[in-house]
Each structure stands twice: as C-alpha cells, then as structure tokens.
Amino acid sequence: MKTKERNKTYNSADYKALTDPERTVFRNMVDTLTERGIFNPSDVPVIAAYARNVVLARTAARDVQRLGTVIEFKDRGFTKYKTNPAVDIMNKAQAAYEATAIKLGLTPTGRKRLKTEEAPPKSELDKFLERLYRPEDGPPGGAEDGEGPDTPGGRG
Fold first, then answer.
1. Can you list the residues of the chain whose pLDDT is less than 70?
2. How many domains does the structure of the chain reveal?
3. Helices in the chain by DSSP H: which ranges?
4. Potential cystine with 96: which of 39, 53, 75, 126 (Cβ 3.0-4.6 Å)?
C-alpha cells in the first residue's frame, strides 16, 4: 500500500473509533487485502465493521466459556435457567463478520461473487459496433459534418 493510502486509512475516523484489539484486527485485514491486491481505501468502513464484529464475537465467546451456554438466576425465590445472552451476541457477531468477509472477497463464496460482478465479456455484435463507430474517429463511414450523402455539398 502506498504511504499516502496508508496514512489516509489509519487516520480515518473509522479507524480512530476502534479499540486497540479492533485496530489489530483491522490492520491484519488491511494487510491481507493489500497482499491479495484487492485493498481499496473505500473499504475502510466495511473493514472497521468487520474488526468490531470479530472482537465482539471473541469477547462473547469468552463469556460463554466462562459462564456456560445456560445461566441460572433467581426469580421470586425460584431458580430458573435461561440461555446466556452472550450466546446470541456471539452468533450475531459471527454472522455479521462472515457476511463482511464475503463482501471483501475473503471466502470462496466472496471470491466467486467478485468474479461474477466483473463486466461480462463483450458480444461479437458489441465488438463489431465498436469497430464500426469509434467516437474519436467521427460518425460511421468517415463522413464529416456537412459531407454526408444527404447534405448539400455531399455525395449523393
């Protein structure tokens, strides 16, 4: 990545709003995208969202490991159980960062999508029409303004 792009990326409001762990994920993602030749500075907000969700999922996973998937609580003197809210947070954050990874072309599905979003190959008709009429060459047939067969002074 060029120094100018790097400065713009790491001085952006999106980057500055991240926590230290999120910044580590962000930098790793920028490095990965740069190595693959697909980094674009316009992706910074998406990469920041990815970093936030990765760290959120990791934090929630640690909470689930510590407390378990089901937690016990008291309600009017009765012991009750419910799913640890961190399970839902972890699952939603994982789904969000997986979707972001697809958008960034980091998964097989994402790479396939990026390839299909490229312009389709030109048809033979498109190629013929381009050869027939190139704007820099003027109108088809080489006639200049006022020299066509239906104009005064033209052939016809």
1. 1-4, 6-7, 113-122, 125-156
2. 1
3. 3-10, 13-16, 20-35, 44-67, 85-103, 108-116, 124-132
4. 53
